[in-house]
Amino acid sequence: MTARTITSEDARARAEQRFQKTAQREREAEAAEKAEADRRKATAAKMEHLRALRLAREAGETTPAQAEAAAENEKRRAELLGLEKAPAPKRKASMRPRKAAPAALDAIP
Question: Is residue 1 in some structural domain?
Answer without folding.
Answer: no
